[in-house]
Amino acid sequence: MKKKTILLFVSVFAYCYLFYNQGIGINFLIFNLLLVFASISIDFSLVKRLNWLLVAPGALITATSAFLYGDLLAVIANVISLLFLAYVSYNPKSTLVFAFIQSCWTLISSFFLQIEKIFTPKQAKEGETVETKSEFTFADLLKFIIPIAVLLTFFLIYKYSNPIFSKFIDNLNLDFISWTFVGFMIVGFYLLFVFYFPVNSQRLIRFDESSSNLLSGGILPNEKSMFKDLSKEMSAAMMTFGLLNVLLLLVNILDLNFIFSGQMKSITNYSQYVHQGISSSIFSVVIAIFVMLYFFRGNLNYVAKSKQLKFNAILWILLNAILLLTCFHKNFAYIMDSGLTYKRIGVYFYLLLTFIALITTLVKITTFKSNWFLIRYNVWSLFLVLVFSTLFNWDKLILEYNVKYKPSVEREYYLFELEEVSYAHLLNHWDKMPYNNNYYFIGLSEDLFDKMLKVRIDKFMEKYQQKDWRSWNLEDDRIVNEILRTRKYFRKHPVYFNN
Question: For the chain, what are the domain ranges?
């Protein structure tokens, strides 16, 4: 049996054992270690490939984060990492964007292509006859279908005609067969089959290999353009960047004046101001990058006025960078005013990715890089930032920051948004914390909150007790220990604990 086939069945067994009816925990780390070492055992030269050396640690880092924190972000990042790892292990030269496309293509098409392969004869080699060249023919399929069909027919005949045989069949206990587990195993087998035996799109491979990161090096007469005359396209580009620079300069001046004059504190709807301002600013930077992608796609890099055009484009990039810095300040001021949340942390990551996109755009313009250079490196930056984001326990950071610096954050936010990580803090302080009347209905008493808190803690503790070592993660252990340490303080309040 081939090595890949053995590893496939070992991996399916590990997948079923580690994940069936389990949660997020050390199982992710063990499974990822298995897949990484399996990839190396198939092709040891992978350890010399830069792409693989970036993707494989990404999978292990996100799996470790899943073990440490047990959160959904790490799981999503790990699944994406394994998608990349599957194809980069098979084709180490593939760039990340095409590895992702190829992996998705494999997931969708693998089943249908394998069925097609069954009925498609292989090309006969020299000296072979047509009858011996087929790998699996329709006749081979019939030799399994006909006996099974005949067996089922006579089974039904005997069951309905012979009472003794019918009673025997009815008394058979097949409860030991878990069809849920069978379905889980089939899905796992398919996913791991795709991991070890990915389907290649030769067209995508050729396109990936032929798409250079460098421009052609001169003017191409057949370059596609909405302008028939290159000089008119240059005039349009110069006018576009010139007008946008004036507009963006005005926006930046007004924004900076607004921030440093202290007028931000006088805004009544601070949340709406920040969210709308940052969203529109990030969107404008993305549009700016697309505009530069069009005008600097090829020929305009080599015409006589290209230096003036690049100067205007670089100025626009710098003005956009200033715009992002003002967005950074607005979000920081918003956190200082209202506390830390997932969305406000997310804004920083959006700003970081957008800033990286500006930097790569600057490199593209100044070093005669192609649009594919920009796409490839920004996909890499997206992947690396995603992996980096899993290194932190965001729930714990949000709780600790708000408790220390923003005690005005209402207790309902912790219960409904942070959930488990805030249980111990809520047990100790809920009756002294500010609350939001919008969460309560008319006629319900004030003890609604502590009843909901009790129910949630009971469910969490029960779920924790049902876990075994496969779902064990350090964060759940820490939360449980914090809750148990409150038992002494709340001994007079047994309503919080089940005896």
Answer: 1-213, 230-369, 395-496
